[in-house]
Design goal:
mainly beta, 14% helix
């Protein structure tokens, strides 16, 4: 009985250590497919809110190590499209995207850190997007809803 207790304790400790080393948090259920509802950009004192439920669609897909996003217009008279992805880290509610691929090449190779909250099927992420060479320095808040299978 004592050896079973020791074995169980070692198993729990090793699982906790593995989770700690990867930076992944089992407490925040971020993995899945998310549909963007609204995006709010605050830049140089101006605030722009974009409704992604009308004439455009944007989804973010997050697995255990990578994320990707797809965005396009729903209008038939234009071919507006963007996409990107890369790896991410999640520690608590601190989510950092390491953008490796992007249809806007100047965004590639940059890290973007966000604070993430999840309540029910809603994910909200807020953080600073900064690319000095492009003059980009803004606060971005995005509100997503989980897409159910």
């Amino acid at each position: 009985m004592r050896s079973l207790l020791v074995l169980l304790t070692l198993l729990i400790v090793s699982c906790y250590q593995e989770q700690k080393e990867t930076g992944l948090s089992a407490a925040l259920p971020i993995q899945g497919t998310w549909k963007l509802l609204t995006g709010t950009i605050v830049e140089k004192g101006d605030t722009v809110v974009t409704d992604y439920t009308k004439d455009r669609a944007f989804i973010k897909i997050i697995n255990d190590s990578h994320f990707s996003f797809l965005h396009h217009t729903l209008r038939k008279d234009t071919t507006d499209f963007s996409a990107g992805g890369g790896s991410y880290t999640l520690t608590g509610n601190n989510y950092t995207e390491h953008l490796e691929y992007c249809s806007a090449k100047e965004w590639e190779g940059h890290n973007f850190s966000f604070t993430v909250t999840i309540a029910g099927d809603t994910l909200i992420q807020t953080g600073v997007e900064k690319i000095e060479a492009q003059g980009i320095d803004r606060i971005n808040t995005e509100k997503y809803v989980r897409i159910k299978n």
